[in-house]
What does this fold into?
Amino acid sequence: ATELYKALERAFEDSSLGETPVVCNLPSSDLLSRYMDLPSDNPSKHADFVGQEAQANIPIAYDLLSTGYYIFEKARESSVSQVAMLTALRKTDVEARESMFKQLKVNLVGMLAEPVANYNALKHLNYLGEVNPGSAEAIMMVDVGHVRTNIQFFTSFGSWFRTIDWGIESLSQALAVGLKITHKDGDGVRRNIMRSKSVSESMGFLREACTVPKREIERSVRAATEQLKELEVVESILVGGGVYQPFLGSLLNNEDL
It folds into this structure.
């Protein structure tokens, strides 16, 4: 958190960024969410429905939560309900982020959960336009972070996401254990495989470490298809800190997946 603050502080020293609207991403690890139906004909009651849903289904005292919701599509004229994603975080987490941006004196316009932020990014880039309405086509986005990975599926009729505690830090650990070196040296090899005494041996340890996310991605695909019908992944997108790990991209394109 300290390093993040320092980096943002340096960035906003640029006077041209003074009026820039900022949207803060809320990590999935801190996020509780669930899909729910809201009455399309009575938007004034949405906040009440969200509160009732949170109290009934989220195992944290309601007064400790900061809640919100995101409607994925506008209601059609004939529909009586519309699908929304309820999001809830501990108020302390939200307040800590708000406090940081107040100290930086920047124009904070909102805070979004990672899955919603990714959805909006794809929509803005018109990626979702490549999914045919009403079809089983889906876009899979895998966001590999340093500590955890977010797996998301976007279709024309809904979206699904899951967070697993596996990230590129796991690769550094696998190299450190396999090559019998320090974690710092293992991270150095992960960043530049040519620093290893045996490239083939190091790649073997990395591929072995990737069996964990591969298994979890396959399990997530099965779970997603149960909720989002039969999926046909027409494009897979790899983002996050692990983008430059070439074998992770090939893992996503594996025919067995």
The CA atoms of residues 101 and 167 lie 27 Å apart. The longest strand covers residues 81-90. DSSP finds nine helices and nine strands in the chain.
